[in-house]
User: Fold this.
Amino acid sequence: MSQAASLPLVRPAAVGRDRALLIGGVLAGPIFAGSAIAQASTREGFDFRRHPVSVLSTGELGWIQIVTFLVSGVLCVLAAGALRRRAGDGDRSVWLPRLLALYGLGLVGAAIFSADPADGFPVGTPRGAGEISWHGGLHFLVAAVAFGSLIAATVLAARRAARQGARGRAAYSLVTGVFFAVAWVTLIVRPAPAVMVAFGVAVSAGWLWVSVTFARAASGRAD
Assistant:
């Protein structure tokens, strides 16, 4: 009886709530990607070869992308909190949820500080990069925080998986992070249509990795 009394009590409601939050994190990526594709297909003048998804937050229908940033970011933050509670204590466990939460907060920041019109979008905007407003500058800053956090999260996850002997999972995380980093830096240094498309693919790959990470935790396999 004394041994039974010493066991920690886990509330089923809390476990169910965290699983629901983790599933929300799994859905954040598909919501973001689905919204971007739908908008790109219907908004005149948008071209994935010339425009980042961020410029969809401009113009009369820009509120759609703003809401997309906000919803996907909040879902990531909430899922990261659930991941932290499932992971347990210790420095090795806390940093991955923290980085994913920071990634989500960066997305929320991207919703608050919208990008500037650029390169002919929305229709009527002059071609070229255009001027950067204060909120456009802050958009770049919070995006950099989000991207850097995601890259760091993939590297951390790869290192942890390698220590556990999960070589396939380690390679997947590392390749995702390296691909994202290279595509991002190349876009900054030498923007071009092919690079813009590659960066869009890298963003999708990053979202897929986020979904896989939260899905593992939702199924009880938190690393």
